[in-house]
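S.,

Sequence below, as promised.
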Amino acid sequence: DDWKRKKRSVEDKDEQQESYPVIVPTPDVDLRSLNFSLIEKKKGGFVDCKCEWGLFRDRNVTLRKPVTINHGMANLSMKGLLEKFNNSTTLGWWEEGSSCDKVGGQDGGTLPPVVDRFKEMELFVSLMCRKINLQFEKMTTHSGLESYRFIPPPNALGSHTDQDPNTQNLANSCFCQQSKGFSCFKSGVLNLEPCKTTPELPHGAPIALSFPHFYQADQSYLDAVEGMKPNKSLHQFYLDIEPTLGFPLAIRPRFQLNAIIRRDPHIEIMRNFSEELVLPFLWAQDGFSEPSSPMASAIQFGLAAPRQLTLLGGVVLLVLGGGMVLVAAVWWCFWARVKPTKEELAMS
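The prediction came back faster than expected:
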């Protein structure tokens, strides 16, 4: 009976998917108007009669909220800057009218050329629901290509109320939505409840974000949970950029998702909890740590091409100039020999 129920579930799902019309996009069709139901997935489902579930399964091969990015044609230094998120210039999650709620920052995959290592970079990370500042740390090398490494400063996720000047960040005060009933955490942890609200969850999903193993977070979070061993080389967020062309040679967004568990005197197992516990349940890393061979070769060619073209252009001009001089010399010699002959004929 259990086998039959699973089989019927799979067959019903297949029939439902087959009912959607397959639309082949053409140049005159707006992609935003098409039905993408066939590539959407749920967090859980049956595949080959086996239950399949994943936290990010519903994000695989699916469309996210649209973003508008500056193409840099008018001003190359603005290439890759986010101008709109979900067709809006504001995020709608953080303090209204604040810099936190304003759409901006760079898209990690589209950076401007000629990167200044002495200038801070602001990167928008949709999974973090915010922009994050990055500072130059050191020079690195990938496949023979030199790059600048940018990392978040120690106070990137710092609280505006932190007494430690090294981790305090007054600019993060607009991420605190305490006036709307959301908790504001100590340095190193960001409450994501404001950006996880839905009609079904008006107070948002109880999720908080940090770096893995509470790296660069307040010591109290590490003391509250066993097994936390923050390590810079394993848990640091970094971005390596080839400075001339602005191509990312390595990018590792690393983050940790934590459940916000609050004490509930009505549930026996939760009566002895602290008032509010930030409990890690997953940390992940995205991106890549080395460029592919074709990518590295293309960047090396792009860097070498201007010098090679200049040299080639000089050689071409030299050959053309030499050819023109040679033609002129031959013409002069020919004319010098023909002219006396014409004068002799005229005298005769």
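Confidence is low (pLDDT under 50) at residues 1-11, 13-21.

Coffee later?
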